[in-house]
Amino acid sequence: MKWITRERPKIDRIACPWLIKRFIDPEGEIIYVPLNEVLIKAAELEAIPFDIPNVEYSHYEDQCSFDYFLKKHRLKDDALFRIAAIVRGADTDRFDFAPQAAGLSAIFLGLAQNIQNDHELLELGMKIYDGLYTWAKYLYQQKHTQEPVGQLWLELFNKFLEQKGSKKTPKWAKEIREMIQDQIDTNMTLSLQQVSEELEINPAYLSREFSKHFENLSFGDYIRKMRIEKAMTLMETTDYSLSEIAYLTGFSDQSHFNRIFKKQMSMKASDYKKNLTKK
Questions:
Q1: Which residue did the predictor score with more confidence, 139 or 110?
Q2: Is the pLDDT score of 144 beyond 60?
Q3: What are phi and psi of 216, to 5 degrees?
Q4: What residues pair up with 32 in beta bridges, in sequence order?
Q5: Which residue has the higher pLDDT, 153 or 60?
Q6: Which conformational region is residue 216 in: left (phi greater than 0), alpha (psi within -120 to 50 degrees), or beta?
Q7: Mean pLDDT of 61-78
Q8: What pLDDT, on a 0 to 100 scale, did the predictor assign at position 192?
Q9: 172 contacts 214 by C-beta, under 8 angstroms
Q10: Where are the domains of the chain?
């Protein structure tokens, strides 16, 4: 069968074709045309129009076209219902429908800006929705803090909350310093904002308390300091290039690494490495 909708898809017009090809009509052909041509081309090509006004497969009440496809084809799958809430929230700017809706909206708004070919965008979108379905089917209850490092953050900051009234340096400060030193590597991308969101703690409050126990540095500055110290260790103990060291210590590129290194060490990373070879 042929399915037709308006061009420049973003959310619902990517989600619906994914649903069609994965659960309704695996051999279905998806066609994108300008809005004023949808019904004309639908008649010419004997295609089923969707996600435009005044056709069967469209928004209804407070639901999206994706919801109608589920209802029409009697798809009873809890994972699809979870995706439907995310799609509905993203497509209508009602991010209260599902916490993932804002992220889905941001992803496809950005991709639609970067990719001008609708079918190229659909191909990429199919993979994204495949991943979302796997999450909705098997992983929706899994939290980031279930991972070892995330769980350690949770435990340490819970201790922080318990001791926040104390004037003494809390035990969590020593533990968190050791944890950062031990765990800092290519996957070390934790931010104070991420921690505050996961723990539902005001980020300004955490930022203020964190700096009291970490050399009067903000969370970000302290992490950068630890990355530079790790980079120095790598320069001393390995033959990695500076670009490799920048990557291994979590910097976006060598230029960023060089800039932060010089700011903290008052010398270029290349000069520091050269001095090591002279010893």
A1: 110
A2: no
A3: 60, 30
A4: 5
A5: 60
A6: left
A7: 93
A8: 62
A9: no
A10: 2-139, 145-216, 223-278
Q: Please give the single-letter amino acid code of residue 240.
A: Y
User: Which strand ranges, in their side-by-side order, compose the sheet holding 2-6?
Assistant: 29-33, 2-6, 47-49
Helices (H), the chain: 12-19, 38-45, 65-72, 78-91, 101-114, 118-134, 148-162, 171-183, 192-199, 203-213, 219-237, 242-248, 254-265, 269-278
Q: Is the pLDDT of residue 185 over 60?
A: no
Residue with token string 């209508």: 92
Residue 31 phi, psi dihedral angles, 5° rounding: -125, 130
**What's the pLDDT at 80?**
95
Token pair 């929230």: residue:
89
Q: How far is CA 150 from CA 53, 168, 176, 179, 247, in A?
A: 46, 26, 12, 11, 21
Contacts of 225 (CB under 8 A, 6+ apart): 215, 217, 264
CATH number for the domain running over 223-278: 1.10.10.60
**How much is the pLDDT for 224?**
81
30 touches 121 (CB < 8 A): no
The angle formed by the CA atoms of residues 155, 156 and 160, to the nearest 5 degrees, is 120
**Which tens digits make up the pLDDT trace of 192-239?**
666 566 556 566 766 777 777 777 877 778 778 888 888 898 888 888
Residue 167 is predicted with a pLDDT of 55
Residues in Cβ contact with 120 at an 8 Å cutoff, skipping those fewer than 6 apart: none
